[in-house]
């Protein structure tokens, strides 16, 4: 089966019951996405599939054949971090770091949702053309990603610094 993982086309032969998370970790040796709860409740395994955030522990790898999968390793490099990765460092958006890759991938996907006008549960007007990324809106959109250390203030600050009001368009241009 063929996949595009972090921009590289790869082919694997594996048991069709393999989760995308296990494929990434065991076959690709990409250890950013973590197996936290293995039930889709914590978000530690969040990756992007064609730009949309998913819980890779709940996804069968075969479902994503020929899709573009982006893990935290594919967002930046040690010499050139993605703007959100740099903001996490600047705002101390992590403590133990276990949830950080999932938080970052989720926030990148969330920014794309905002850009596309996807409302959340707390959006005032679900028919609006765009949404302001208030702290309430941000916290609701990121609620599927848990941090046991409680580094939420740093996480929110990092995401606001990168994608806050009127920053989504410019941050997306900087990342490409």
What does this structure look like?
- It is a single chain.
- The protein is α+β, with helices and mostly antiparallel strands and 176 residues long.
- The protein folds into 2 domains: 2-74, Roll (Ubiquitin-like (UB roll)); 83-175, DNA polymerase, domain 1, CATH 1.10.150.120.
- Helix content is 34%, strand content 11%.
- The protein has a 5-stranded mixed beta sheet with strand order 2-1-5-3-4, with helices on one face.
- A hairpin with a 2-residue loop joins strand 3 (46-49) and strand 4 (52-55).
- The longest helix is centred in the middle third of the chain and has 16 residues, at 100-115.
- It is globular, with a radius of gyration of 16 Å.
- InterPro entries: 2Fe-2S-bd, 2Fe-2S-bd_dom_sf, 2Fe-2S_ferredoxin-like_sf, 2Fe-2S_ferredoxin-type, 2Fe2S_fd_BS, Aldehyde_Oxdr_Iron-Sulfur, Beta-grasp_dom_sf.
The figure for the number of domains is 2
Query: What is the oligomer described by this structure?
Result: single chain
CATH topology of the largest domain: DNA polymerase, domain 1
- Strand portion: 5-15%
CATH superfamily annotation of the largest domain: [2Fe-2S]-binding domain
How many E-type strands? 5
With helices defined by DSSP (H or I, 4 residues minimum), what is the helix count? 6
Sum up the overall morphology in one term: globular
Q: Enumerate the strands of the largest sheet in spatial order, edge to edge or round the barrel.
A: 2-1-5-3-4
GO cellular component, one term: periplasmic space
Keywords: 2Fe-2S, Iron, Iron-sulfur, Metal-binding, Oxidoreductase
GO molecular function, one term: metal ion binding
Organism: Paraburkholderia monticola
């Amino acid at each position: 089966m063929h996949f595009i993982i972090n921009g590289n086309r790869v082919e694997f032969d594996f048991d069709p019951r393999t989760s995308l998370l296990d494929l990434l970790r065991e076959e690709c040796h990409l250890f950013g996405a973590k197996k936290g709860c293995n039930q889709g409740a914590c978000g530690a395994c969040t990756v992007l599939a064609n730009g949309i955030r998913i819980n890779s522990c709940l996804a069968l790898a075969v479902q994503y054949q020929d899709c573009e999968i982006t893990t935290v390793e594919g967002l930046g490099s040690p010499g050139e971090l993605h703007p959100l990765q740099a903001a996490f460092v600047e705002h101390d958006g992590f403590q133990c770091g276990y949830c950080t890759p999932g938080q970052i991938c989720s926030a990148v996907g969330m920014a794309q949702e905002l850009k596309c006008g996807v409302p959340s549960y707390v959006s005032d007007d679900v028919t609006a053309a765009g949404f302001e990324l208030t702290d309430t809106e941000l916290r609701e959109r990121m609620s599927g990603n848990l941090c046991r250390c409680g580094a939420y203030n740093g996480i929110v600050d990092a995401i606001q610094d990168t994608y806050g009001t009127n920053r989504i368009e410019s941050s997306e241009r900087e990342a490409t």
